[in-house]
Write a structure and sequence with these properties.
Elements (H helix, E strand, L loop, with lengths): L5 E5 L4 H14 L2 E8 L7 H9 L7 E5 L1 H14 L16 H15 L3 E3 L8 H12 L4 E3 L10 H10 L15 E4 L4 E4 L29 E8 L2 E5 L2 E2 L2 H14 L4 E7 L5 E7 L1 H17 L2 H20 L5 H13 L5 E8 L2 E8 L7 H4 L12 H20 L1
Parallel strand pairs: 1-2, 1-4, 2-3, 4-5
Antiparallel strand pairs: 6-7, 7-12, 8-9, 8-13, 9-10, 11-12, 13-14
């Protein structure tokens, strides 16, 4: 690693990555290029640019990219087509952002002729795996620097001391121990650590930032519609919206009604269990709306196969294998299943809950004529069921005679 001349750092402008920026220069005597991604985290990103300039990064080597539309269109929506939930609950808000950040870092590294890339993920978490699997998939020979696995700055106190020694500005609110850490993007906000580490203790109210308290949410339900075309949401309440604008609108609706809170103890890829609070207001509405339109447009065999594939697909994303051939194979099958998944879903939002209350589609497989309890005028011959049942019962009857 001694021959590194230039490195692209995933840079937020916060204390950790600012210390990393200086540490990289000192440790590797290299030039640092910063990359800050706007994924809809709701923060002003120009301060990150100014801070990078203050720390000596050349203006042409500071990248602040608005990736919101690409994030939702090319990552969130394909994942939503799969109905992916990790361990049956988690909508993968952090996981799905990492491959896009990794991809853009590698693109910048090629553009500026960098030898290496670097990230601020710790050696205990999943993100180090997600970033680095992405890097190596896209640039097999790239060098990766993970400072948290190398340096001796093992506490917040040491980070602040290092920052002060090297004239790195430390905001007043960063001098004390944070009560918890957060990660945010357009799909979700995750919070973990410190006050959340005891899984028996209820999450304090001050942790929540993306959702209003369901208990104090409006007392009147709100009914909305979501339109789908080929498995992707394209409009809310009849208004056509871009992918990022659509998720933003659903986030606003979900926040108002306290939708999308999840208290989860999950199994990290690195082996340990961790407890986190996830807020995914728009994504929760989107997920249930997509399931609603699939109910009338997917054949039973296709729907059940998708449900079998979804946990595997979710695990691949959670573990960082977005760029793997198996994820791409699954995506091809899932996308094929969505060709007729078009129509409108009506949902009721009320005090933390989302209910599908209506669905319609020009491609619907639902037939009132067949399913009716009234006279179906020959659409279904009930006498056929006798042979159907007997054939399915044959092996059970043979087992019963043998074992009786």
């Amino acid at each position: 690693m001694s021959d590194i001349k230039r490195v692209v750092l995933a840079y937020s402008g916060g204390l950790d990555t600012s210390v990393i920026l200086k540490w990289l220069k000192e440790t590797y005597a290299c030039e640092v290029v910063t990359f800050t991604a706007d994924l809809g985290q709701g923060e002003e990103l120009e301060p990150a640019r100014r801070k990078a300039e203050l720390m000596g990064v050349k203006p042409e080597h500071i990248f602040v990219d608005d990736l919101r539309e690409e994030f939702v269109r090319d990552y969130v929506m394909p994942m939503m087509r799969a109905n992916a939930l990790y361990e049956g609950l988690y909508l993968l808000g952090t996981s799905i952002a990492r491959p896009l950040i990794a991809k853009r870092q590698i693109e910048i590294a090629r553009q500026v002729g960098a030898d290496a890339v670097s990230h601020g993920a710790t050696g205990k978490g999943n993100d180090q795996v997600r970033f680095e699997l992405g890097y190596y998939a896209l640039a097999p020979d790239i060098k990766v620097i993970a400072p948290w696995r190398e340096w001796d700055l093992t506490s917040r106190t040491r980070l602040i001391e290092y920052a002060e020694q090297h004239q790195i500005p430390v905001p007043k609110d960063k001098r004390g121990e944070n009560p918890f850490s957060t990660d945010a993007n357009l799909l979700h906000t995750s919070s973990e650590g410190k006050v959340l580490e005891d899984p028996w203790e209820e999450v304090p109210d001050y942790v929540f930032s993306r959702t209003d308290n369901p208990e104090t949410a409006p007392n009147t339900p709100e009914v909305i519609t979501v339109d789908f075309e080929r498995g992707d949401a394209v409009a809310v309440n009849g208004e056509a919206l871009s992918p990022a604008a659509l998720l933003t609108k659903l986030n606003e609706l979900g926040k108002l009604h306290g939708i999308g809170r999840l208290d989860l103890v999950e199994n990290r890829f690195v082996g340990m269990k961790s407890r986190g609070m996830y807020e995914t207001p728009g994504g929760t509405i989107y997920h249930l709306a997509h399931r609603g339109i699939e109910q009338i447009t997917l054949d039973r065999g296709a729907a059940h196969l998708k449900d079998e594939l979804a946990p595997r697909y979710a695990e691949l994303i959670y573990n960082g294998f977005w760029f793997s051939p198996e994820r791409e194979m699954l995506q091809a099958a899932i996308d094929h299943s969505q060709e007729k998944v078009s129509g409108t879903v009506r949902l009721k939002l009320y005090k933390g809950s989302v209910s599908v209350i209506g669905r319609r589609s020009p491609n619907s497989l639902y037939s009132e004529k067949v399913v009716t309890f009234e006279d179906d005028q020959g659409a279904y011959d009930q006498r056929d069921a006798a042979g159907f049942i007997k054939l399915n019962a044959l092996r059970l009857r043979l087992l019963g005679r043998r074992d009786r």
